[in-house]
Amino acid sequence: MNILMVLFVIFLILGSFGNGFAQDAPGVPNGSMVKSSPDDSDNGTRLRSIELERIKKESYRSAAAEKAASNRKINYPQIKEDFELLQKLQSEIVKTYVTGKEINYGRISELSSKLKTRAERLDTNLSLSIEKPVKSSNKKESYPEDVGEIIVVLDKSIGQFVANPVFKNLGVIEPDSAEKAELALQNIIRISDFLTRKAEKQK
Predict the structure, then answer these.
(1) pLDDT tens digit sequence for 5-34
(2) Residue 82's closest CA among 147, 156, 161?
(3) Which end of the chain, N or C, is more open, meaning fewer C-beta atoms within 10 Å of its C-beta?
């Protein structure tokens, strides 16, 4: 093998190694060396700034979600208190109406007003409509004009409410049961308010 052939082989070997190094060089497109520019530093700073802003926003959203979840925690002591008092107040209303020589309308108005307040707080604490939106009705509710008949309607609504399966386990609420309980509770609020105003006029 003459000297020219040896030099030619060496040239080919070096050429192939050079291409391999260029292709394997990380971050170098098409085997070419890319020189850094002053803009690269600015781009890196801008990207880090964007990432920090994204992390901050996600942190705010996480904190807001945690606060919302905390607000939705079930207040068992108040629910138990209002659930029981709702029935006691109704029993007291019935007792006031059927006993005594004269009907104490003032007392009935006072008791039904307290009942409405408890029902509203119970509704807030239960938040049953979160499980399934309650369907609103366009039908206008009409109640009897006689105080005694109003008390009967209220008593029936409270009976339906307290017998609802949702109160067997507040940790696992079935949507259908929750909807029925919510409708009954809203009805109790409206009827007790109506009874309060009606009894007040009879004083």
Answers:
(1) 544 545 545 454 444 444 444 444 444 444
(2) 161
(3) N
The answer to whether the CB of 119 falls within 8 A of the CB of 78 is no
Residue 87 located in a structural domain: yes
For residue 121, tell me if it sits in a domain. yes
Coil, helix or strand at residue 44: helix
Residue 166 and residue 160: Cα distance in Å, rounded? Answer: 12
Task: Give me the number of domains the chain comprises.
Answer: 1
Q: What range does the domain containing 85 cover?
A: 75-133+141-201
CB atoms within 10 A of CB 27: 5
How far is it, in rounded angstroms, from Cα 177 to Cα 165? 6
Write down the pTM of the prediction. Answer: 0.59
DSSP state of 34: P
Distance CA 188, CA 162 (A): 11
Question: Which residue bears the tokens 């509770």?
Answer: 185
Burial zone of 150 (CB within 10 Å; 0-12 exposed, 13-18 middle, 19+ buried): buried
